[in-house]
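re: the backbone from monday

yeah here it is again, tokenized this time
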């Protein structure tokens, strides 16, 4: 028996299911500090979640309940689905079942933490890594202390007043448990069932470092995760990967913002995997397929060879575009410098091809400056890369603290809309207020809700794309002509290896992972590994399972 019980709830109803890794991390730290932890994982009960939640709360008396919010919405311009409505339902049900305080965190939560602490009407929230702060809160509550003394904790004072306890450091750093392997279990009652997630979702997951030092203008991650790299101990990371492969979880996806940044550490992790494989013919690491997110630099021969030797299943590369004039000021370091060129992208693709490592190239169209011509050139040159799969997105979700979101709010200045601001559910022009003109809760809220409290997630699509005037003038206009143009730009013979944004009825080649019908079929049929790796064979696979 531990000091007290902490309940952790996973309200993620998106399929294919993704292992709630964060809950293993929180559990590891809480248990190490002597707390009992029970996980109520509602992902596998998305149609009857109230039953298991009620039953848990009726038979337990937790000191504290933690709720992980991984995604706020699809962040997918063509299907702007919001998830926080069901998260609120779950949180309200928790409140009915217990008087224990509720704390929330997660990367989605951290993208608008003040607004969500207020919206969920919960006493506490955490922005960024939560393992250390969660332990401090549990300890403080147990001792009858004052949570207002826990630096970094978000405390809800009611009526829209959410404050972060000072002094707080930016997310990351000491907030991360870097020294121990996180305990990954399977089939243990009341814990995350990693093997079941693998069987039903096709992937496990591993974190090697937290945060990102870059400042790409579309991206929420440096703000939500931390603006520095916090590296985990190499042995701890590889011990953890080995514990996953020991449990039969062979396809493991990195959850670093980018695996190849802080590249000396990346190489150290891979070297340790390779060392263990060559030292021990019996280690389950021989079955590992590691799926990684990378940027075009830093990436050299040594890294490519280490990836191949460690057992890389595939590389997901995000150059986003090919043209310098579009990428300038967008894909930049914290100091504002560009950090790769199109030649670097070509190089990663050929280094991977030489080693038979499949590649997925991610392209983000519709950022500021995008025109029909830049789009045309981008599609042509990215298809020429010969990647296994190329994924095109059109339009970007604007978040309160992504550099683009901040800029859009400044440009609106609370008095005008800006061309390109869009939301499928907008009923009036989107006018954002910059920070300083409103409270932090209000500032964050406006990126998700309109002034009447209706969901209206804010997106940006380049107004220089060839859209008709009515589309550009309407806050809910759909960039349909650009999508049609994009489809036209992909030659018929390349379609099998391309993911495209779609309009209802246009095609099935949808690149939104949330409840994607192809992916769901794939998983039912026992396929594992990153979803994109099966994409080129989708027609055949769908025929086989029909
Ligand atoms: C890898 C990844 C994927 C992979 C997952 C592979 C796998 N097997 O895990 C794939 C490609 C499948 C994927 C899919 C999607 N993803 Co994704 N993904 C990521 C990525 C890079 C890592 C997520 C992760 O596991 N992080 C590691 C964990 C340990 O960190 P964490 O969850 O943040 O947890 C820490 C803290 O947040 C905190 N914390 C977490 N929970 C709690 C709870 C409490 C109580 C407390 C106190 C603290 C706390 O403490 C934790 C430990 O330090 C993130 C970005 C990122 N760098 O995190 C995007 C990200 C989470 N994904 C995102 C999205 C939108 C999606 C999709 C919805 C996309 C889509 N439309 O299909 C789907 C959803 C799938 C699903 N079923 O949920 C967005 C979410 C944005 C938002 N505001 O909602 C992110 C942030 C990407 C981005 N830049 O926008 N994803
Ligand atoms: S897109 Fe840029 S800022 Fe975002 S995680 Fe990747 S490198 Fe970092």
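seq for it, each position gets an aa:
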């Amino acid at each position: 028996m531990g000091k007290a019980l902490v309940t952790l709830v996973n309200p993620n109803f998106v399929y294919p299911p993704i292992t709630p890794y964060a809950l293993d991390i929180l559990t590891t730290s809480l248990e190490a500090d002597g707390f009992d932890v029970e996980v109520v994982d509602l992902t596998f009960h998305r149609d009857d979640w109230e039953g298991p939640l009620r039953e848990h709360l009726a038979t337990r008396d937790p000191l504290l309940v933690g709720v992980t919010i991984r995604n706020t919405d699809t962040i997918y311009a063509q299907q702007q689905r919001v998830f926080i409505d069901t998260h609120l339902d779950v949180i309200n049900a928790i409140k009915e079942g217990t008087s224990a305080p509720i704390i929330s965190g997660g990367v989605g939560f951290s993208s608008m933490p003040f607004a969500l602490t207020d919206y969920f009407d919960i006493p506490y929230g955490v922005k960024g890594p939560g393992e250390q702060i969660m332990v401090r809160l549990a300890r403080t509550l147990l001792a009858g202390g004052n949570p207002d003394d826990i630096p970094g904790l978000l405390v809800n004072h009611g009526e829209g007043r959410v404050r972060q306890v000072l002094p707080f450091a930016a997310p990351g750093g000491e907030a991360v448990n870097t020294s121990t392997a996180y305990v990954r279990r399977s089939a243990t009652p009341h814990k995350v069932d990693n093997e079941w997630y693998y069987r039903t979702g096709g992937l496990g997951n591993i974190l090697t470092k937290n945060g990102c030092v870059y400042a790409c203008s579309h991206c929420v991650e440096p703000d939500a995760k931390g603006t520095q790299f916090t590296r985990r101990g190499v042995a701890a990371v590889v011990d953890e990967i080995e514990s996953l492969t020991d449990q039969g979880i062979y396809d493991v996806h990195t959850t670093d913002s980018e695996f190849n940044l802080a590249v000396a550490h990346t190489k150290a992790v891979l070297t340790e995997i390779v060392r263990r494989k060559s030292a021990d013919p019996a280690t389950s690491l021989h079955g590992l397929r590691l799926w990684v997110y990378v940027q075009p630099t830093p990436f050299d021969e040594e890294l490519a060879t280490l990836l191949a030797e460690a057992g890389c299943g595939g590389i997901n590369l995000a150059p986003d575009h090919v043209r310098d004039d579009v990428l300038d000021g967008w894909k930049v370091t914290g100091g504002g410098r560009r950090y790769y060129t199109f030649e670097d992208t070509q190089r990663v693709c050929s280094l991977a091809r030489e080693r038979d490592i499949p590649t997925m190239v991610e392209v983000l169209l519709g950022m500021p400056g995008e025109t029909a011509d830049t789009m045309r050139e981008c599609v042509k040159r990215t298809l020429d890369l010969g990647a296994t799969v190329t994924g095109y997105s059109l339009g970007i979700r604007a978040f309160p603290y992504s550099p683009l979101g901040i800029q859009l709010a400044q440009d609106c200045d609370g008095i005008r809309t800006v061309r390109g601001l869009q939301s499928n559910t907008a009923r009036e022009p989107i006018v954002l207020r910059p920070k300083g003109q409103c409270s932090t809760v209000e500032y964050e809220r406006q990126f998700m809700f309109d002034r009447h409290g209706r969901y209206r997630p804010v997106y940006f699509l380049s107004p220089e794309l060839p859209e008709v005037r009515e589309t550009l003038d309407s806050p809910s206009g759909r960039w349909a002509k650009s999508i049609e143009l994009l489809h036209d730009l992909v030659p018929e013979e390349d379609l099998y290896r391309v993911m495209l944004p779609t309009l209802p009825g246009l095609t099935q080649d949808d690149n939104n992972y949330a409840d994607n019908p192809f992916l769901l079929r794939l998983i039912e049929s026992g396929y594992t590994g990153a979803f994109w790796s099966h994409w080129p064979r989708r027609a055949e696979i769908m025929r086989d399972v029909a």
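The chain has 20 helices and 19 strands. The two ends are 50 Å apart (CA to CA).
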